[in-house]
């Protein structure tokens, strides 16, 4: 395999992981204003990272099945799914309503982690249709989202919550662009 192609795929996956992790980053900014203990911040980041591994893994498995069954149609569906997901993230970043505040402990932490990783399932579905490398993809998503969650929580301790909506819009724009790329690659 060509080294340039491998590096290109790695960079693409990193950018997608970064885009998906921006949701966790923006929510982490808001939670960081709660003045969490360092141990809580550590656990929140790890749980978010694990969910960002599990959700795209399930999505990729379903996406590979669809790809084997439906071929090119499934690739178009994956691109459309990324477009819709990107648009949804962009639109939700401009909503005025405050998101509900869950406590980042116990069941609240798992609900929070599931909520911020649902978009990873959809992207995993698209990547499974596309045929991306599973291990590299899920590890990239997990590690990047864990570090972005930590960054959001730490930064949230220092700044106001105004930055969060812009980061979600940026993440949505990146996913939208990848959807367009996937649609026009055929």
Automatic annotation (TrEMBL):
Organism whose genome encodes this protein: Litchfieldia salsa
The keyword Ubl conjugation is assigned to this record: no
Protein name: Putative manganese efflux pump MntP
Keywords for the protein's UniProt record, in alphabetical order: Cell membrane, Ion transport, Manganese, Membrane, Transmembrane, Transmembrane helix, Transport
Membrane topology (UniProt): Multi-pass membrane protein
Sequence similarity: Belongs to the MntP (TC 9.B.29) family.
PANTHER family: MANGANESE EFFLUX PUMP MNTP-RELATED (PTHR35529)
Molecular function per GO: manganese ion transmembrane transporter activity
Alphabetized HAMAP family for the sequence: MntP_pump (MF_01521)
Name of the gene this protein is made from: mntP
Transmembrane segments: 6-29, 41-67, 73-94, 106-129, 135-156, 163-184
Function: Probably functions as a manganese efflux pump.
